[in-house]
């Protein structure tokens, strides 16, 4: 695995994971209906205040850099009106803060004391933390080619608030007999390809593997275009896109998953 900060940056090893304790805790928590505290933030971009708001979900003790206070603040302690800073320097304004409980098991992973990272299996990002879709799309640019892409990057937020990232042209396959496998087979045009390599499908495969069938029923998708490093500033890279209307949109609608059009 490779750790990077913040999303693209310095590399370093993953720190140890106390599997025995964590697995025991997870087992006890599942039996007792353990409820974790979460916080939803609704944010607007100061550079385009009339644009659609962005929603972020995280555990309530997760630290965010507050430009208002000039220090790290647990998300559960943030206030409406505070400013957060994006990697490109633009500011986000907090419009709403919602603290609540949800019955789900969460695991904390420390990567050399970094809050933001992603992990690679070869060239494929398989674990992403605090990386927004724009950062993820940027991480794919170096491997882009005009024949195979990847042409699209997607972010899926599951009902539990967990996020999964995917790109077109991936080589993941749905678990045989699983819900994603059923979707791929059910919503395929006669004589058409399965669209198993779509960015949306990669996200759903990961979500089903991590959370089961319930992890791919509901919540939302975001999709953006990916272009290479030679793409000019202000070009197509990073612009919003829609899941394909012929195959992916019917699959998401069948699962009650919302998405934004590009």
UniProtKB/TrEMBL annotation:
SUPFAM superfamilies xrefs: Hedgehog/intein (Hint) domain
Taxonomic superkingdom: Bacteria
Pfam families, per the entry: PT-HINT
Listed name of the protein: HINT domain-containing protein
Species assigned in the record: Streptomyces sp. NBC_00003
């Amino acid at each position: 695995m490779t750790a990077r900060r913040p999303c693209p940056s310095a590399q370093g090893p993953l720190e140890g994971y106390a599997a025995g304790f964590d697995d025991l805790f997870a087992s006890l928590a599942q039996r007792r209906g353990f409820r974790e505290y979460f916080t939803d933030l609704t944010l607007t971009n100061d550079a385009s205040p009339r644009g659609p708001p962005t929603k972020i979900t995280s555990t309530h003790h997760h630290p965010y850099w507050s430009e208002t206070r000039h220090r790290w603040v647990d998300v559960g302690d943030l206030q409406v009106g505070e400013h957060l800073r994006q990697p490109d320097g633009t500011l986000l304004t907090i419009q709403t803060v919602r603290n609540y409980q949800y019955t789900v098991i969460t695991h904390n992973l420390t990567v050399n004391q970094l809050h933001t990272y992603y992990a690679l299996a070869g060239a494929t990002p398989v674990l992403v933390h605090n990386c927004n879709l724009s950062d993820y799309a940027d991480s794919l640019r170096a491997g882009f080619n005009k024949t195979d892409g990847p042409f699209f990057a997607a972010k899926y937020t599951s009902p539990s608030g967990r996020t999964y990232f995917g790109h077109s042209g991936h080589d993941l396959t749905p678990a045989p007999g699983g819900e994603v496998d059923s979707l791929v087979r059910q919503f395929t045009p006669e004589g058409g390809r399965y669209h198993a390599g779509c960015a949306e499908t990669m996200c759903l495969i990961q979500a089903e593997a991590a959370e089961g069938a319930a992890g791919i029923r509901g919540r939302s998708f975001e999709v953006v275009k990916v272009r290479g490093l030679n793409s000019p500033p202000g070009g197509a890279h990073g612009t919003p896109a829609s899941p394909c209307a012929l195959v992916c949109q019917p699959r998401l609608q069948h699962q009650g998953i919302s998405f934004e059009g590009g």
